[in-house]
Design brief:
heterodimer; A: mainly alpha; Methane Monooxygenase Hydroxylase, Chain G, domain 1; 2 domains; about 70% helix; elongated; B: mainly alpha; two-stranded antiparallel ribbon; hydrolase (chain A); Translin (chain A); metal ion binding (chain A)
Amino acid sequence: MSVSEMFSYIQGFLTADHDIREDIRKVVQVLEQTAREILTVLQSVHQPSGFKEIPSKCAKARELFCTVRTQIADLKTKFPAEQYYRFHEHWRFVLQRLTFLVAFVVYLESEALVTREEVAEILAIEVVREKGFHLDVEDYLAGVLIMASELSRLAVNSVTAGDYNRPLRISNFINELDSGFRLLNLKNDPLRKRYDGLKYDVKKIEEVVYDLSIRGLAKESESGGDK
Amino acid sequence: MNKREGEGCPHKNSDAAQDRDAGSNPSSPVITAFKVFQQELDTKHDKYERLVKISRDVTIESKRTIFLLHRVTSVPDAEQVLNEADVKLDGVRQKIGQIAEELRGEDIYQFHRAFTPGIQEYVEAVSFLHYIRHRSLISLEQINARLVFMRNGKMEAQGSAEAVPLAAQVLTFQVTPSDYLLGVADLTGELMRMCISSVGNGDIDTPFQLSQFLRQIHDGFSYIGNTGPYEVSKKLHTLRQSLGKVEDACYTLRVRGSEIPKHMLADVFTSRTTVIDPEEGVV
């Protein structure tokens, strides 16, 4: 095989690779759009009036997840299933956002941490790599961490809206999450960087709880960890 | 077994933290879930580290082979050096076999970053050897064809968790086209050094052959341009420098070769390259 033949062979490979990436990028763009829509729907829970509407907002978000499912199904057809990590970078961000959104919805509904299996089910993807398009554990954890900062915001806003019990429940939840993350031996990677931000969320919520309890606004009975 | 100890310490710390934070509820679903994640992440990181280690060994051995091959120009019995290099590369292939073993049942791109430096260096070494023997560019298929391994019992202990079907007795390792490309880009640097040293030994033909070959590779890279991976465009710059040096060498040989006695050629040549060097830095 001559040098030029070899290079045109490689060039062919690179072009094919490029085309796949283009296709993926297009689908991911649409997916990001949907994710933003869901986020907009959920953002209204921070409004004073939004607290009463949580169930209806969640229902609406869940409807939008149907769209996400079809879009992910579309994404799956764009590349060979066993080459997930070759193109992982393209959807890593959006998948983390979607995990966050699912986790947020589930938290608002049931005040519990969504499991990886639930996220996978709602997004109609797999948990383990062997079965196809799956949710990488690091992406799941990153999504959960995004939710933690969203919850610290929610704690502040719920006080403004006059809901004094919610911050206590959020505080318990976040503390549990924090001790969960402390079990992990993270490497010096993006996930670790994001985890380093968790302590600020914890701190913020603790301040809210402190403000409430020093003014006698929090009922002591609520602070004993339910759940 | 340093790793085990390293793992033990943070684990103890986190146990303490867990007692403090969620002491009332250590077996909550959240904690149980995170224990599973801990295991999964640790397994992944361990595998990654093992691959990095093997890759480093592959890099070192390949570099040594390249050094060995540079001696080809100065010893009378080239064949002996080449055979020695072959033996060395067999050792490297054994190591790549270990990589393949680690990657069995995995997505190779998940851990690609761990072993790509080693593989590139291997491509460099193996293509250098191939060039010296056959004066041609080794193809990707030729490289991959030699990376087929029979599974042996020893490796079974560290095999991945899932059951392996009997058909998987033969392991293959596929060098990705990008790794191949980057390895070939590195090869050009070695060819440039070989060109310079062969002049030092009074070999007049090799530089011309090399400049021919380098030009072909350079044309190939120009053809790919910036459609390739990001690192290729960086290496293209170094490739141009190498090509420039070799072309200048040929030029000097042609112009002055006829007027200077052979035994003094090397001196003329070395003085000329040192003049070129600072210019190269500016470009």
